[in-house]
Amino acid sequence: MNWDENQISSIDLLNTQPLLSDEIIKQQYQSFISSFQHDERYIYRTPKSIMKINLQHLSAYDFQLFQELKRRPLHVIQIFEQVTSKLELILNVSPISIRAIDSSYINKIIRIQGIAVNASQVIVKPSSLFLQCKSCLTTRILDYIPRSCSNQCSMDPFTIIPEKCQVLDTQYVKIQETFQDIPPNETPKHATLVLENNLINRITPGKEVSVTVIYGIKETHSYFKVIGINSEERDTKCFTEEEELMFRQISKGVLPDENNSEPKNNSELKNNTAYSLIVKSIAPFIHGMEDVKKAIVCLLFGGTRRILEDGITLRGDLNILLLGDPGVAKSQLLKQTCNLSPVGVYTSGKGSSAAGLTAAVIRDSKGEFCLEGGALVLSDGGVCCIDEFDKMDLKDQVAIHEAMEQQTVSIAKAGITTSLNTRCSVLAAANPTFGRYDNYRSIGENIDFGISVMSRFDFIFIIKDECIRSRDEEMARHIMGIHKDSKNMGFLDTEILRRYILYARSKIFPSLNDKARDRLCDFYVNARKNIKKWEKMGGEKSIIPITVRQLESVCRCAEALARMELNENVSEWHVEEAIRLFMVSTMDAVNKGYYIEGMNRKGIVDEIRILCDKIREMLPVGTGRSYDSLRDRLKDYGDEKINRAIEYLVKSEKVVLRNMGKVIVRMP
Asked: Could you tell me which residue ranges the MCM C-terminal AAA(+) ATPase domain spans (predicted)?
């Protein structure tokens, strides 16, 4: 057994086959480089800056050499590097899950994949030491420092001659399991990668990679020496012909058969479209909130990311804020969205810091600084769901400004200056400032966020828990139906929908036609005009601004709707539906509150507050008065305003109604 500082170079003790000599290994490898043909081309003969060799090619050409590589991978690779200095070996087999790796894989060449969590700085380490004896000046080249000299000199006589040592660049990268490999209710497993020379600085935090490695153990810690990087992007974009056929059927609104995954026509879905089928598959056990689910569908598919000629990047991912009363299933929607996204990270704002959401510079076990990506970085290419967004500190909210719009995180700490990608959508949920949404307060009073954060959300939904008898009956029946039978009720399987989303995002890149562009321009001009008119009429300045960002939001939504149908062209219908979603979300949030004909919202709120003060003056604490007498005293204000004022006082627990609402009693 031969050990060096980083790895085991051989543990094949029970193999009785004779070993090939180093010279034979070198000759056979040179023969492979010069003679192997693929599609009648000598693909390895031409000199390259980095020689990337497919191990399946080596196995097909010289199986004996391939077996020798499997027995003594580190030693044989050192011989290969004498012929080609910059070498990568790629094993194109199915990757092994990190949690499935055990002692049987020690000293084996395997393929693993995961998401890079952190990356250390590059460390210069010696591969061989040039030693000289201080007494007799004898020189030796070893990978360790011996205690004694062969010439009977004193103990510890050797000194290192640095300029004659051979060194290599080393970097340590920690990866974790991909989100698809993590079992439910389990924490992700991690693995430490060791990269050397030409492989360093090719993996950054947040990137999902597939690598060919040699599994080894140093002291009590396991590690993976990387010998080749299979892919530096997500390796899940390969689809079978059967899948593509099924996806084309789904794009027409046809539900595939669960038993054989073959598409079939369902009579109940005869008039369905892909839009209605997919919306029905988003959190199907949550009743109602159709427009919210439609917006989440747009978020999952996303628009087209564009890089302009001057280098400016226009994001294609949508950001959505769900602001609502407790108990309206906001958190469940976030969980469902996280499960449906090909890459999804769920976090809570109360337990998250700015560094935990973006990136942090930490010290590793050796005291060196390394960069570790946060939730937004790990969500690159997917969705980051942030619950309890209102519980985040203001400084933490400000930290994600760049991540939400420019989709990067800039770091300048501890001598590390870099930028990480956060090309993901943000789905956030928050409660109003006063716990429940108060219709008698302005939108600015109900939302404790700054304008800079609010403008970065493409859609803002206000979800209120209103007491409406017909709706409550429908919801109760829906919940009881779930308890009775929770089988598939005509919606897509989660895994099929996840693959469909991945297929659409990787294959379809829609663009607007002339009519769609003209419609969007008209919408933006009219929206700005209406907001200006509202402010001139005495309305308060909205905390939710209507800017160019909102125009781009509608554009992204229209592109997402086209992508959902696997359509390369954005039609006028897509634009109209995107405008409708914007109007029922953000524009509705801007205008949220009670109205009375002939008065703007600020006017009615002020009137109701004056009425509340008058009612409290007429009712000393602990006394009561009939509703009719109050109405007679305040008849100049009108019945509607009086009823709204009493309703507000009841909700504020300032008064209570007795005798079936006929008597009003003032509370302390």
From this structure: 274-479
Per residue in 525-553, pLDDT tens?
888 887 777 666 555 555 566 778 888 88
* Total of domains in the chain: 4
Q: What is the CATH number of the domain that holds 104?
A: 2.40.50.140
pLDDT single digits (tens) 215-266: 988 777 788 999 998 865 544 567 888 888 898 888 888 877 644 444 444 4
Q: Do the domain assignments include residue 36?
A: yes
pTM equals 0.75
Rounded Cα distance between 91 and 70, Å, is 12
In eight-state DSSP terms, residue 136 is T
Strand locations in 589-646, DSSP E? 624-626
142 residue type, one letter: L
The residue with tokens 């992700």 is: 188
**3-class secondary structure, 517:** helix
- 3-state SS class at 636: helix
For residues 271 and 196, membership in a common domain is answered with no
Residue 218, in any domain of the structure: yes
Tokens of 447: 């939302």
Each residue's pLDDT tens digit, 467-500: 767 777 777 777 777 666 555 556 788 888 988 9
373: Cβ contacts below 8 Å, ≥ 6 apart? 116, 117, 118, 205, 206, 359, 420
**What's at 482, amino acid-wise?**
I
- Is position 551 within any domain? yes
